[in-house]
Amino acid sequence: MSTTKNTFKAIALPTLLPIALAAAALPAQAADWSDTSIGIRSGTQFAEPFNPDDIKKNIIDFNHVSGYKYGTNFFNIDLLLSDNKDPAGAGSSNGATEVYIVYRNTVNFEKVSGSAIKFGPVRGAGLTFGFDANTKTDAGYNSKKRMLVAGPTLMFDVPGFLDVSVLALWESNAPYSTFTKVSTPRYSYDVHPMLTAAWGIPIGSSGFSFEGFANLIASKGKDEFGNDTATETNIDMQIMYDLSGLINAQPKSFKLGFEYQYWKNKFGNNSDGPAGSGAFAKTPMIRAEYHF
């Protein structure tokens, strides 16, 4: 594992970005199906650890999901733009900017072996692997997260999809303080598990759908400053309506809806400790997305 840590430590976001784009694109070349979208969501009650203020953020995202010969491929980039309640630096009147990348590939055991794996409500099983990476410019932490993930996935027999995974997380960070002008050497947390679910379920033939994800992330041990981390709960739910039929956009799709995020002990910071209320976000949002 030391080789993995050293390799990940050396990778900067400008390097990860073209790698992630290439990884997302390769399976899509032979895709059985694909869905690519751009979207925007906005809310005024975002929160950040150690910051007591409500923060307004506009988030622009690029999302790609596809099915290929052996499974499914998922790639997402969020560009998060904060107002000045989450400043870009010490004494700055500008808001912080963050880029967050997620890549997941799930290899479906049935597609590889040719033998169905079905029992009870489960219609399939697979192995998921991938990574998260981010960079943020803000007044305090300036996150440079790098995280590898891997573990088993069950696919449930529902309209649309519901996938549940148990993933091992290998996470590290190397923050920089604009107050002290000190960079923290890249620090690797304890390997820790995450129970995660992702879903997209149409509500009959109404044009509405229930979409989202939920993560339950165990403590990752001590943080880079020697503090205990807490179990993290992040639930992001959306009710979306497909306006395609109303605006004659078919076969393309334009969706509009309401999103709500419940995020307790954000990034492992204990909301009952020094991180305070900023580590417990309860954020309503308006969301719009266009699918090509």
Automatic annotation (TrEMBL):
<dbReference type="InterPro" id="IPR036777">
    <property type="entry name" value="Channel_Tsx-like_sf"/>
</dbReference>
<keyword id="KW-0946">Virion</keyword>
<feature type="signal peptide">
    <location>
        <begin position="1"/>
        <end position="30"/>
    </location>
</feature>
<protein>
    <submittedName>
        <fullName>Outer envelope protein</fullName>
    </submittedName>
</protein>
<keyword id="KW-0261">Viral envelope protein</keyword>
<keyword id="KW-0732">Signal</keyword>
